UniProtKB/TrEMBL annotation:
Cofactor annotation: Zn(2+)
Designated name of the protein: Alcohol dehydrogenase
Pfam hit, one: ADH_N
Residue ranges occupied by any Enoyl reductase (ER) domain in the UniProt entry: 10-342
InterPro entries referenced in this protein's UniProt entry, alphabetically: ADH-like_C, ADH-like_N, ADH_Zn_CS, ER, GroES-like_sf, NAD(P)-bd_dom_sf, Zn_alcohol_dh
Family: Belongs to the zinc-containing alcohol dehydrogenase family.
Iron found in the keyword field: no
Keywords from the named record: Metal-binding, Oxidoreductase, Zinc
GO molecular function, a single term: zinc ion binding
Amino acid sequence: MKAVLFEHFREPPSIRNVPDPTPSTDGVVIKVEATGLCRSDWHGWMGHDSDIVLPHVPGHELAGTIQAVGRQVTQWRVGDRVTVPFVGGCGHCHECNSGNHQVCEEQFQPGFTAWGSFAEYVGIDYADTNLVRLPDELDFATAASLGCRFVTSFRAIVDQARVLPGEWVAVHGCGGVGLSAIMIATAMGANVIAVDITNDKLDFARELGAVHTVNGAREDVVQAVRELTKGGVHVSIDALGHPSTCFNSIANLRRRGRHVQVGLMLGDHATPKIPMDKVIAHELVILGSHGMQAFRYKALMDMLETGKLAPQKLIRKRLSLEDAPAALMLMDRFDGTGISVIDRF
């Protein structure tokens, strides 16, 4: 099969012919019909993820059709249309038994712990625990766009922050994660403030439901958010993953507010400055959001079916597999709006 492969971190990936995967006893092989291009893939290529063993095929936001099934798989058949969370639970550890597959102690992550979906085929372990069936009317590109960004934002807004109608929500960073969070928080009835440093992204955020925008390149973010909300937001999301956005996201909360860290904090950014005096004095809550369990996709799919969520609006570029190496290396530039999906192999 054709795949994007890199043999050394920070050196250009290339298109290679590599052996087709075979299913593990509890896994499947999926013919990839679409796969998202995410900044997490860039972090992997940069060498920020200790799970990656070289040589490596990246890619973790995927949708496709099952081509082969392991002998212990009971719930899936060849031809089924599926997607999968980017964090797969083993199904038997303490966290999985408690329903928290997204923080599984023995988690499987395509594109990180195993070869990923920048390829014609990908192997997925723990299939009965993790695969998600796609409705016939949902196209593969939209399904792939759910990937890690949309579902992680869904969990952040709905399950972790537990956003309520009428609450103020600030979203710091209007890339794929942030725009997803804006759309989801708006659908939950919140009043959303979008924060970024480029006007085109802020304009797009308004199209997706933001009621106010703050340009961090021109304004004091914390002061602006506090003024707009008369005291601070109830919920704040760092959707970028940078020391400055993390700090601002916590600092712009009102008393007893909830901060959710969604943007990855890796490498030099792994230990950001936190206004701990305010965390204590104002009883602030700091949470993380790391993927979403397969069984929680039902609520998300229902909101897609009724039109309350439209992740396809976030797709701004469609690429071929041959485009992927160059696009991957440029993910640190934050160019353009929305997300990119590879749908030609």
